[in-house]
Amino acid sequence: MYPSGALRFANHSGRYAAIGLGFTIPLSVALDNTLLGLLVVGWIVGGCYAVKWATIKNNIVCLGTLALFAVLLLGAFLGVQSATDAQQHLIKYLDLAIVPVFAYYFRDPVTRQRGLLAFAAAMTLVLACSFLVKFGVLEFGGPIKGTPLSPVVFKFRVTHNFLMAFSAFLFIRLAMASTLKAERVIFGVLGLLAVGNVTLMVEGATGYIILLALSLVLVFSVLPKRLAMVAIIAIPMIACVLAAVPGPFAKRVSTITKEIEAWRPGTSAQYSSAGLRLEFYKNTLEIVAEHPVVGVGTGGFPKAYAEKVRGTGMAETQNPHNEYLMIAAQTGLIGLLALLGLFAMQWIAAKRLPTRLETGLAHGLVVTMVIGCLLNSLLLDHTEGLFYAWLTGLLYGGLEYGPRDKPPAPT
Fold it and tell me: Which of 18, 167, 205, 227 is deepest in the core (most CB within 10 A)?
């Protein structure tokens, strides 16, 4: 039985906030925070606590996100960090603890569909605005972060390409799942435009690699084995052609290659993006080796890294631009295993989701995060971290309900 009156209003507010976040995540941090507030308040005061508890205890992915957050919470009381640093970093990981809240509201398949369409609509807007920036119709200033040379819109290029690479995958998946010809055409065209936006318009190595990986996921999941083998050969060949044709993709590949070749261990690489990352990785691995079990504490990485590079001329950093190293440095191998275990749970549990669309998107999300976390500390970044938590809650909100089960009524 579901509540009435004020409690029902709170539940509906939380539900529509969960849907609305799909639209605001690619656009506005301020709107994200407003809707997150409505979401959490609606969940707390909306009653149905037995259902909410069942959503948590019966959902292995929710338990996995809470386990990772619990490790990070414990790490806040250990290590070399100040209370302020621990608090600031723990707040950034709070999205993990909100996954069960998202999952509660997304138990209903209609709500899940509306959430996906809200995100698709937002990314369609981003895609259209990106082309308008490219052709000089929209100019730099206000919410417009880019220029015709780098036509990003509401986010900077790494985040833009991260979201757009997944959106290309989403659009193609929606086209495949639709039974209406017009929808298949619209989503198919949007998918192709998104691919072009990532590869030909905006620089961002993270987006390039994620798009390549998602292409392979799509190939393996939908094509017969013989055609899949052809595609496996064709996709790298296309990437090689793009690397040879003048444009953002070729420029970024060339720059990264030169920077990696020029990097020397133990020397400062302050004017080299790829060199800096290699420097961060090497020094962070040494920190992990020195604190292998419980790490330096949640929020303790900046201080530990500053001590590591003191007197060397190397740049200090707040994070190593690698989520696996970031988690391992803060919480040791315990935290790293919790993160890897969570991704493994999501991959395995995706097969139990109600529809092929949701299973495919869930596998795509895991691949996106596994690859993205190699190149960035995604869970620390507002947009990427919230996107992961929101989509995890959305897709796995239906986990406890199999294809033959009657879905729950919307709250």
Answer: 18
Q: Rounded to whole angstroms, what are the CA distances from 135 to 62, 129, 170, 306?
A: 44, 10, 25, 44
DSSP secondary structure, 114-159, as one string: HHHHHHHHHHHHHHHHHHHHHTTSS-SBTTB--BTTB---SS-HHH
Q: How many CB atoms lie within 10 A of CB 168?
A: 28
Q: Contact 231/223 with Cβ under 8 angstroms?
A: yes
What are the tens digits of pLDDT across the range 195-231? 999 988 988 888 889 998 999 888 878 766 666 666 6
Pull the structure tokens for residue 110: 């209609």
Token output for 323: 């989520």
147 strand-pairing partners: 150
d(CA 133, CA 142): 13
Contact 138, 144 (CB under 8 A): yes
Residues 77-110: tens digit of each pLDDT: 988 788 899 999 999 999 999 999 999 999 999 9
**Which DSSP string do the residues of 218-251 spell out, in sequence order?**
HHHHHS-HHHHHHHHHHHHHHHHHHHHSTTHHHH
How many Cβ atoms from other residues are within 10 Å of residue 286's Cβ? Answer: 12
Rounded Cα distance, 335 and 315, in Å: 26
